TrEMBL record:
Protein name: Large ribosomal subunit protein uL3
Cited Pfam families: Ribosomal_L3
Subunit structure: Part of the 50S ribosomal subunit. Forms a cluster with proteins L14 and L19.
InterPro entries in the cross-refs: Ribosomal_uL3, Ribosomal_uL3_bac/org-type, Transl_B-barrel_sf
Length: 205
């Protein structure tokens, strides 16, 4: 299993050798350091913990300083990936974009853009009310939400209504790596990925 964490830079396009133009998302993924190996015996599951980014020593908490003392660095972020084959990793190893191959299928997870409070038409795709037959101001209304019939005089749980939209964890499968640029720590991925520019993305293959 391959994994890395990167930041969404922007969307662009890539020209292939045959002249085809492919929409791509640029993701910058700085080299990450293995900070801990978790095992079934000690932690109850197998996983690799990675640290990336740096912060001032004065801003690091004491437990964090002790956790990474042997590595001599204060990391800004930590991420954990559960894997079965932990024997191939040891503390201090580096994980870079060079581990990924051209054309490889990957899974990308991140937080989607927050849309704020939205109505039912945008949030759930409702059709809205009639624009005619004597109705006013009902174009984007939800309609009835319950009554004395099958609902039993109440609003049933899970009723689709207006509310906060976006800001959810989204996972997109089967994206392909269009290009790997190790010198710039950049992956070009076909299609779009969750979130706005600067969103942290978890990439696995």
């Amino acid at each position: 299993m391959k994994f890395i964490v990167g930041k969404k830079v922007n969307m662009s396009q890539n020209f292939r050798g045959d002249g085809a133009v492919v929409p791509v998302t640029a993701i910058v993924a700085e080299p990450m350091t293995v900070t801990q190996i978790k095992t079934v015996e000690t932690d109850g599951y197998n996983a690799v913990q990675l640290g990336f980014g740096t912060i001032k020593e004065s801003r690091a908490k004491k437990p964090q300083k002790g956790h990474t003392k042997a590595l001599g660095s204060n990391f800004a972020h930590f991420r954990e990936f559960r894997i079965d084959d932990i024997a191939s990793y040891k503390v201090g190893d580096k994980v870079t974009v060079a581990n990924f191959n051209l054309g490889e299928k990957i899974r990308v997870s991140g937080t989607s853009k927050g849309k704020g409070f939205q109505g039912v038409v945008k949030r759930h795709g409702f059709k809205g009310g009639s624009r005619t037959h004597g109705q006013k101001h009902s174009e984007r209304e939800p309609g009835a939400i319950g009554g004395a019939g099958r609902a039993g005089g109440r609003v049933v749980k899970g009723m689709r209504m207006a509310g906060r939209m976006g800001g959810d964890r989204i996972t997109v499968d089967n994206l392909k790596i269009e290009a790997v640029l190790p010198e710039q720590n950049i992956l070009l991925v076909t299609g779009s990925v969750p979130g706005s520019r600067g969103t942290m993305l978890e990439i696995t293959a």
